[in-house]
Amino acid sequence: MKLKLQIYLLAMVLGLLFGCKKQQQSNSVDAGPTENQLTNSQESTPTESSENQVEYEPYYKGLENLEGEALAKGLYERIKDHKTFSYRQCYDILIELDRDPENPKNIECVFTDFSIDAENQYADGNGWNREHIWAKSRGDFGNAPGPGTDLHHLRASDVSTNSARNNRSFDEAENPYIDEDGNAKGETGCYTSNVEWVFEPRNERKGDIARMLFYMAIRYEGENGEPNLELVDYTPGRGSKEPIHGKLSTLLRWHEEDPVNDKERLRNNLVYQRYQGNRNPFIDHPEFARDIWGYDF
Ligand SMILES: [Ca+2]
Ligand SMILES: [Ca+2]
Ligand SMILES: [Ca+2]
């Protein structure tokens, strides 16, 4: 009888110990999602499950009824000071973030949707590289951690298309852009202009790109040695290194014509949970764009 009691007590103590350990693990903020959770989130759309919604909504608490500068400032406080990575590390991270869902060994290029073997990093100019959607010369921030490696706007891109885009602003353009170099080439669905220094991506990417630039304008406010990036409603010249990017009215229109989809939501969640710990608010709350930049465009 006494032995049974001892075994029972020992079992209870062990049970308590393991129970605590398990709880600690599930409470840990730093623990990213398990493979299983990620697979589930890829499969379920936010309309099918409100799980994603619940997960990030507290992030925006206290911002209800704000607009303009006040909303921009409130968002900045939430998204600033994110975890950063080196430019070299971003090559590997983009293989996960910009993976081609139909061919998981490949990455999908941001402007063209070309699918390129993930191992062809640069590959003497024939493969893919890391494109700053907010052109790095616009604020002259280079490839340093901060805006230079911010995963919310750093994307996998065909090398030759990347060169053709250069540091052009985004706006509608008249000449179809045909990619003539590298392993992936041909028609791109993109346009460029010989008159204005602008680039027009495929229709399916227009809203995505607008939301990346909205994020950059709010995330970088000139503090802690960072530039203050701002959107303007004109096309800055090719040689200008001012921290400004265009063209705001076109971006606001593209944001509405090409609304947020599940692919963007998934990528936003991955950047938040696995890497930077901050979100692109314009993917979660598309209405924030007009609340900040107004309705007059
Ligand atoms: Ca190419
Ligand atoms: Ca899109
Ligand atoms: Ca700014």
Q: Could you explain the architecture of this structure?
A:
With 297 residues, this protein is an alpha+beta fold. The chain has one domain (65-293). Helix content is 41%, strand content 14%. The protein contains 11 helices and 11 strands. The protein has helices spanning 2-27, 35-43, 51-56, 68-79, 87-97, 159-165, 203-219, 248-257, 262-275, 281-284, 288-293; strands spanning 99-100, 103-108, 115-117, 128-132, 154-158, 169-170, 175-179, 186-192, 198-200, 230-231, 244-245. The strands form 4 sheets. It has a 4-stranded mixed β-sheet with strand order 6-9-8-7, covered by helices on one side. Helix 7 packs across helix 8. The longest helix is centred in the first third of the chain and has 26 residues, at 2-27. The protein starts with a helix and ends with a helix. The model is unreliable at 1-5 and 7-52 (pLDDT under 50). Bound molecules: calcium ion (CA) (3 copies). One calcium ion is lined by residues 217, 220-221, 228-230.
Ligands in the structure? calcium ion
Total number of beta strands: 11
* Helix and strand pattern: HHHHHEEEEEHEEEEHEEHHHH
* Biggest β-sheet: strands ordered side by side in the sheet: 6-9-8-7
Residue stretches low in confidence (pLDDT < 50, at least 5 long) are: 1-5, 7-52
Estimated radius of gyration: 22 Å
- Helix content range: 40-55%
Give me some keywords for this one:
alpha+beta, three-stranded antiparallel beta sheet, 297 residues, globular, 14% strand
